[in-house]
Amino acid sequence: MLDFLFMRSVCVQASAKLALRKQLEKTLLEIPPPKPPPPEITFLPSAASNEFICLIGLEEVRCRLISKHFVPFQFNSLWKF
């Protein structure tokens, strides 16, 4: 008799777990997917912008100086002439 009650208890627990699992899977499918992250590029350069043309010029000068000889320091946009 105890074996029968034990087996019934195990059966009830298994069916309760299965019902809970199905309910959780259904709930999980109802959750909307996350929004995609925003694009990392926040600045789109324009050839009409004077600031952009100056930065391109500085980059070109930096590349030519580095290719001709070693430069022991870094160029940046905060230089004062």
State which percent range the strand residues make up: under 5%
Q: What shape does the CA trace take?
A: rod-shaped
Radius of gyration: 33 Å
- The counted number of beta strands is 0
What does this structure look like?
- It contains two helices and no strands.
- With 81 residues, it is mainly α.
- The longest helix is centred in the first third of the chain and has 29 residues, at 2-30.
- The N and C termini lie far apart (97 Å).
- The model has no long low-confidence stretch (mean pLDDT 77).
Give the helices and strands, then pairings.
Layout lengths: L1 H29 L19 H19 L13
Summarize the structure.
This protein is mainly α and 81 residues long.
Q: Which features does this protein show?
A:
single chain; 81 residues; mainly alpha; 0% strand
